[in-house]
Amino acid sequence: MAVPTVAIWSVIGLISGLGLGKQLHPWTPHVSLVKARVAMALVCGGVSAAVGWGFTGDPAVVAWWWLAIHSVGLSVVDLVSHRLPRPWVVMTAQGGLLVFLVVTSQSGDVGPLLRAMAACMAVFAVGLVWHDFAGSDLGFGDVTVFAVVAFYCGWLGWRAVAIGLGAGVLLLGAVAAVLWAVGVCDRTSRIAAGPCLLAGPWVAVAMS
């Protein structure tokens, strides 16, 4: 049963990747549209297959697929332009909220949804304070991504929130240390935080 399900998710990912490649093209003008769409189709196909396999039987699987696909897009944009477009980040949260609302209405258990929303609001509030003190060291886009990560991880539990946020920060620190060590950048260089932060939820999922 799992094999057909994974195959279906792969096809969904391939189709989504073609559309994502077109949406990303303005951010990657140096790459031909055809190459961008093919690359995103392959990446999203693989990511979707992994999500479909890992979340088989989970009623919230669509939310996690939504997060995965948008994480790919946001990571590419951040790596290329050091930006995390607010509309994309908001859509990432909106998609998850919609699915979680449906799951909650079917199960009748509002606990996970309330916890996810509380985690999101708390992390966003702390992030705003951090942003004011850190200045250019922490972009507002990073704050919103932190909040989205907390939202998805909050659905799983408070432990997942701690793991997801902590893993993202630790991964970012490790990547920065490696880049500094090999001389790719120095301590004043800007490093795209989005990809590392967006990897956090998947560490939390793996450890849940």
Automatic annotation (TrEMBL):
Going by the UniProt record, its keywords in alphabetical order are: Membrane, Transmembrane, Transmembrane helix
Query: Is the keyword Ion transport in the record?
Result: no
Q: Which sequence ranges are marked TM in the entry?
A: 6-24, 36-56, 62-81, 88-107, 113-131, 138-157, 163-182
The name of this protein is Prepilin peptidase
